[in-house]
Amino acid sequence: MSTTETQRLADKVAIVTGATQGLGADIARVLAGAGATVYIVGRGREAGEAVAAGIGESGAAAVGGSARYLEADITDDAAIERCIRTVMDDCGRLDLLVNNACSYNDRGLASSRAEWLATLNVNLVSGAIFTQKAAEVMRPGSVVINLGSTGGKFGADGRAVYPASKAAIIQITKNFAVSLAPLGIRVVSISPAWTWSPSVESMTGGDIAKADAVGAHFHPLGRVGRGEEIGRAIAFAASSDASWITGIDIPVDGGFSILGPDQGRSPREWFGKLLPES
């Protein structure tokens, strides 16, 4: 990162939920690399401590960054309160909350009531409660970042719960931004498209070139995203450089959301491709 980027979050204290692997871990690494003290919140102590240790070995300390793992089930209000209390006891402040934790449990129209409630509890309700409780200790200039998704903006066969949760996240970002503005707290959502992650890795056998080749059909920039690119967008949105930005969704999606179902191709091209030759 540039010198400006490595100083962007100097002396800031951040919580990132769901940061023991994948995108959350990438976000935590970027924030620590920008100078923040990052609390990695999630389940899976071994994985969480490994992420924290990796950050410690990455050179983040040279710019003031560090990381610590806090084990917590974010569907438990008492666990959320313990996380915030630990951060305040350690640092005396909380400047940034990143609501990243996510469940992909979704069978579309076939999803049961229990599946709906369980996924929404992780993806939506827990982030809302974490924001509620974090706002009680945050100072003016603090920021809440919610992870949305392009999946919350378009229809898709076989899915319902996950996109519904992401659409709701984008909505509550607006509501919370209005509610917290008088306290000087900004709220922003970041919506990635297809991003290199454990789920994409599993579909490609760990071959990022294959992921890019498939992603090129749906992202004008010709590949899937990288977790650190999402992290850098979050670091910007959380910094003083974005001090006049609140209540909006920022698409970090390689152009995915600018395309319609025609994928940016003309009718002439599609008719020529799909109609059999006479």
Automatic annotation (TrEMBL):
Specify one Pfam family: adh_short_C2
Q: Which species is this record about?
A: Azoarcus indigens
Q: Name one GO molecular function term.
A: oxidoreductase activity
Gene3D superfamilies recorded for this chain? Answer: NAD(P)-binding Rossmann-like Domain
Keyword Oxidoreductase appears in the UniProt entry: yes
Q: Which UniProt keywords apply?
A: Oxidoreductase
**Protein name per Swiss-Prot or TrEMBL:** NAD(P)-dependent dehydrogenase (Short-subunit alcohol dehydrogenase family)
Q: Which protein family is named in the record?
A: Belongs to the short-chain dehydrogenases/reductases (SDR) family.
